[in-house]
Amino acid sequence: MKTQIFTGLAAAALATSAFAEVKVGNPMGLTGPIPDLVAPMAKAVDLAAKHVNEQGGMFADGQEYIIERADSACDPVAAVDAVTKLVNVSLVSAIIGPVCSGATIAQAESVSIPAGVVTLSVSASSPAISTMEDGTDLVFRAAASDAFQGVALANLAKEQGISEIAISYANDDYNAAIAAVFAEAFAAAGGKVTANEAHEPNKASYRAEVATLGATADTLALFSYYGSGGITIMRNALETGAFESFIGADGMLSGEVIEQLGAENLGTTTFTTSASDDSTDAFGAWKALAEEAGIAASDPFVPNSYDATFMMALAIEKAGSADREGIAAALREVANAPGELILPGEFAKAKKILADGGDIHYTGAAGPQDFDENGDVAGNFSKNVVVDGAWSAEIIK
Questions:
Q1: What is the pTM of this model?
Q2: What does the CA dihedral 232, 238, 239, 244 come to, rounded to 10 degrees?
Q3: Residues 4-41: tens digit of each pLDDT
Q4: Could you give all domains of the chain from N- to C-terminal order, each with its CATH number?
Q5: What HEC string does 132-189 produce?
Q6: Phi and psi, residue 251, nearest 5°
């Protein structure tokens, strides 16, 4: 009851206060299972805010666009705690993040949706997010659902000549969901799933699990975070020769996998992730900005993180105030056609068009950001293999 009263008081304070700045919350998985993946994503968030502020800030009086960061640790409990503070204490207007699906779902159900606060995740991809909000239109994401990535990975496995496969997945919202999509799509394409087992994260050894799975197939489909079990599973499999090849998704796509396991041991490993089409004008604009700032333009979910932050600023500018209530509708208006094309970094151009009563259509670093009825965007995926000691990506056609 105290939480409900506090939330109500916070909302009232937010609605009646005179803003000298526009503050948005940014819960990111700075610690937890994938910190190396998240670090450049956070830099992209900061870069988008920097571009907004360098080009006149928010509204006619040039209010500063402030990123209030918190650590959600890719953990549901930590995310609820972090977003509760952002919403009720920091009084942020909206949430950009979290990174992981479990954290996104937990904070949205417990905090942001009840408080009427928009969440725009930078990378959460569980299919469950599409239908979780029951018509509130308060949850969006700048990365494609794993309802699509799981199918793309299954098709890729079949193209590689894999006919039988064992599956191991971490028992969390992200990994369990994409594993289920993959298993269904692989079977529908004529493949055989020989085993499909959950594993608990952060165990010292998975030798027993690897031995059981390895007795059924030569290829392992691994759905895990690299820092909470994924690397250990692969190490145990390599040590015992349980599998000849590995496939998986973006929770495993990190340089740390190469550092710990050795590039020479990953020649038959393929991971997929959300990807940007680098042939577009929007990506070209983003790449120039990213390289100037020393950010790797094509790293997983880095373009999406920039897009989410930039779009949120455009939406608040479109709404005409930092009040929470009008942001969701404005977010759809700036992201979806029609409107004058806005590319990454073009905040001053967008601000003038909006001030003159015009419409804008943001096309992002990660691709078009048109939201469907569930707040989802379409997207591209890449297959990633080790070449010359590093991950090399190719868009899946």
A1: 0.91
A2: 140
A3: 434 444 444 444 344 589 999 999 999 999 999 999 99
A4: 2-144+279-366 (3.40.50.2300), 147-273 (3.40.50.2300)
A5: CCCCCCCEEECCCCHHHHHHHHHHHHHHCCCCEEEEEEECCHHHHHHHHHHHHHHHHC
A6: -65, -20
